[in-house]
Write a structure and sequence with these properties.
The complex is a heterodimer. By secondary structure, chain A is of the alpha/beta class. Chain A has 2 domains: 210 residues, Rossmann fold (3-Layer(aba) Sandwich); 64 residues. Chain A contains 10 helices and 14 strands. Chain A has a 6-stranded mixed β-sheet with strand order 6-7-8-3-9-10, with helices on both faces. Chain B has a two-stranded antiparallel ribbon. Chain B contains 7 helices and 2 strands; from the N terminus they run H-H-H-H-H-E-E-H-H. Chain B is 60% helix and 5% strand. The chains are: A alpha/beta, B mainly alpha.
Chain lengths: 308, 175
């Protein structure tokens, strides 16, 4: 099952395409990170997936083919937007009451228990809570709906380090507890490394890289060796990004499962998620998709889920 | 340290929340068992994958005697709630420990230490040491200094570990 599936998806604002020819299939059971530079189309893609905006072209479905924005889709999705949207003048208790009455399913006892553990007072106005508490309240309201897909848009942008950690710990605990998939966007690569097991890189309005983090890391290597040999060696390889000094060069390559011996004088290193993402972001022309590279308006690629 | 502890006790309570929907943590009795003797930490700058850091910390704790036969490893949910990492990462680490024969999962209860680390028998250790000394002499004759030897050994060890890791990874995806 795919939690988000897009085919030829595009969104135009005025004369500018925020997203175009987007083909994507995120399988269930993952914490998927949506990464890309500012203005790449992350928020647009998420807004389309949760049904906040309608596509200009193409289609997007969620939770196994339910059209985005349809009642069936909304029932299974919880969305926390960038600034932890709350009615600031309402008390915490009233926010709970409101959310319960606006949704078909709401686990009141779970929400109350969780807010109690966090020490968030029921009588306090939402606007008077700290930034971290507001984010936790928004997350609690989202989780109490018992969603099968939790969508978070830049959830930690406004939080201090401790609040970020606690917020992400709460999300991960929810994943450990039950049957919820997570799609979250961020441009802070370092903090995604611990949480994400699926990566989607978006640059200038389309998907550049998509896949399970373990598979991506296993199929890429950094080769370090003499700069003089780099060009001839690179011809035999699938080089994503090359960085060179006067004498030494680093080649980030796709091995595609082939791991032949490196020539004498060269060293092979594994890549980190951050290094891999940066290499692709520097080379918008390179793509790593589980199928054809840089799919534009193509059929959603086959994604095999190895883990389950 | 105190913060971690608070988070994990909070996690326990959430796991047995009256809603009954998240009750896959096992019977309430399991939650009352004493916590695991160890607590994981992460070094983001080490470059070692997170799951491997967990595996190495368990092995280290076994060597130093912090963990003994029958001890319980931290519950997946508690590790996740205190380190803010993906549950699959913890599961992968525990699977690796099971593959190595060091730990075993008990359904509904958690993962427990099943074996202590095998010490290599003394005669073999002596033989390994002798061949390593031979290698050091050769390296010295080639003009390599001590730092160079350490760098070369570390690099070779890393390559060896990766090749072994890749091989066991393939086995996993087949199963």
């Amino acid at each position: 099952m795919n939690v988000i599936e897009a085919i030829g998806l595009g969104k135009r604002y005025g004369s500018t395409w925020a997203l175009r020819g987007c083909a994507l299939a995120i399988p269930a059971g993952h914490v998927a990170a949506l990464v890309g530079p500012n203005g790449a189309g992350k928020t647009t893609l998420l807004n389309l997936a949760v049904g906040l905006t309608a596509p200009t072209e193409g289609t997007v479905t969620v939770l196994d083919g339910r059209p985005a924005g349809s009642p069936a889709a909304l029932d299974g999705i919880a969305f926390v937007a960038q600034d932890a949207p709350l009615y600031k003048s309402l008390s915490v208790a009233d926010m709970l009451h409101l959310t319960r009455n606006l949704n078909r399913r709401f686990d009141q006892s779970y929400a109350a228990a969780r807010l109690g553990q966090l020490g968030i007072p029921m009588r306090r106005r939402a606007g008077n809570l700290s930034g971290g508490q507001q984010a936790q309240l928004a997350l609690t309201l989202a989780l109490a709906r018992r969603p099968r897909l939790l969508v978070l848009d830049e959830p930690m942008a406004m939080l201090d380090p401790l609040a970020r950690h606690d917020f992400m710990a709460a999300v991960m605990a929810a994943v450990a507890d039950g049957d919820v998939s997570v799609v979250l966007s961020s441009h802070v690569l370092a903090e995604l490394e611990r949480v994400a097991d699926y990566l989607v890189l978006i640059t200038s309005g389309s998907v550049q890289v998509a896949g399970e983090v373990d598979d991506l890391l296993a199929s890429h290597r950094v080769l370090t060796g003499p700069a003089a040999e780099a060009d001839s060696y690179a011809q035999r390889l699938d080089v994503v990004n090359a960085r060179r000094g006067g004498a030494q060069a680093h080649l980030l390559v796709r091995t595609n499962g082939r791991s032949g011996p490196v020539p004498p004088g060269w060293e092979e290193h594994p890549v980190s998620l951050e290094e891999l993402a940066l290499a692709y972001l520097r080379e918008p022309g390179a793509g790593a998709l589980p199928g054809p590279t840089r799919a534009r308006g193509a059929e959603p690629m086959e994604v095999t889920n190895w883990q389950r | 340290m105190t913060i971690d502890k608070d988070v994990s006790t909070a996690g326990d309570r959430a796991g047995t929340a009256p809603s009954g929907t998240g009750g896959d943590d096992g019977p309430a009795a399991a939650a009352r068992l004493p916590a695991s003797p160890i607590e994981f930490r992460l070094d983001p700058g080490s470059g070692v994958p997170t799951y491997l850091q967990l595996v190495q910390q368990v092995e280290h704790a076994l060597r130093l005697g912090y963990l003994k036969l029958g001890d319980q490893l931290p519950k997946v949910r508690d590790v996740v709630a205190s380190l803010a990492i993906n549950p699959n990462t913890v599961l992968k680490a525990y699977r690796e420990l099971e593959t190595k024969g060091l730990a075993a999962g008990r359904p509904g209860q958690g993962t427990f230490i099943q074996a202590t680390l095998n010490q290599v028998a003394l005669p073999e250790l002596t033989e390994l040491r002798r061949s390593l000394l031979g290698w050091l002499a050769t390296a010295d004759a080639t003009g390599l200094d001590e730092d160079g030897m350490v760098a070369l050994f570390t690099s070779a060890l890393r390559g060896f570990r990766e090749r072994r890791g890749a091989a066991s990874g393939e086995k996993e995806s087949v199963a």
